[in-house]
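Model it.
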Amino acid sequence: MSRRRRNRRKFSTEPVQVEVESLTHEGKGVAHVDGKVVFIDGALPGESIMMRLYNRKRNYDEGSAIEVLRASPERIDPRCPHYDICGGCSLQHMSHEAQIRAKQAVLVEQFEHIGRLEIPDILPPLTAEIWGYRRKARLGVRYVAKKGKVLVGFRERHSSFIADMQGCEVLHPSVGKILPELSDLVASLSQFERIPQIEVAAADNVTALVFRHLDDLSSADCEKLADFGRQHDLHIYLQPKGPDTVHAIWPESSELVYRLHEYEVENAFRPTDFTQVNHDINHQMVHRAVEMLAPGPDERVLDLFCGLGNFTLPLSRRAGEVVGVEGDAALIERARANAERNGADNVAYHVSDLTEDMLQASWASAGFDKVLLDPPRSGALEVLPLVAKLGARRIVYVSCNPATLARDAGELVNELGYELKSAGIMDMFPHTGHVESIALFEKK
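Modeled.
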């Protein structure tokens, strides 16, 4: 075994000139060296580059572009000075227009190759501000003795090290512009080597920081954190153990909210709850989903994987009744509180394992006219037969993974009697290879 490991690591690190042929779904350039495929960071189709390998696998190698000999017309200069080392973004070297075209091509290709479907109507992509958009993030924290300081930021590419960053161009400015100050703050604490992570949650009313700490903080440490919150208008939380231990220390009555003004909805959330990263795209996404589903005042709508009610409450403004179902009991508790907060008396929430048969559940007995699906990356394959049996005439599927969306679309169309009407992308994560998408299905 040790011999195999040694041999696997023995490969030339000398630069190699290659012609870049295409782009992977993750945004890496594709080339061939001696007949073997190589995936290359920072390379674009049509370019001639010098690249250096950093990893070798049985069926492919991985490398990084170190010099561009012939540039693609889609290449631009990255805005962030830390782009070459930081792993937070992967496509800043590509124009935003080209990023959108590439993501749309991924969606079409996945539908064709995985779902065996053509999209009859490709929706216009949803786009918004591409800088300072990221409202949720987990920043790594580490004291580096050789540098004599604490680093706060995203991890380096292909490494567990924290990138030495003076700022972040995609993170919400309330935090992205104060990374050095955050570094100095942690360095001033007595337990500076025992804080591995800071979670960021930028709400509509305030930005919160959750400091994960492995050992107890002193009263002096807590006062320094609170002072930092006062100085920068930030709410400060601590997390000594699991998610249930998260609590505010400044101010003690901290509340985070985000608003969907079109529907007169205000959702309260905890800083560690799942909420959409991109505020502007979320507004557009909710609007598109509601318009596509088009619920009527006499219709019953099911929202599966409903979370805090991001779609449920806007749908309730149009539908006769909306039922939200989610597997996380804590999220459902907060979703119910949000329904009450917004006066949505035509909403019911239920906790249920969405991988199991739910036809006997009380909330499913009356059937549904329309269904909204917003599953995790693994998709919604297990619940699709249930959706069909419930009699839903129309389904809107919101996805963070085009591969599982395409797989599930094939199941809906080829096995369950639905017709794909339209689909399109939503640029939730500019400058990354992440593709958010939405699709509409109707019963044949």
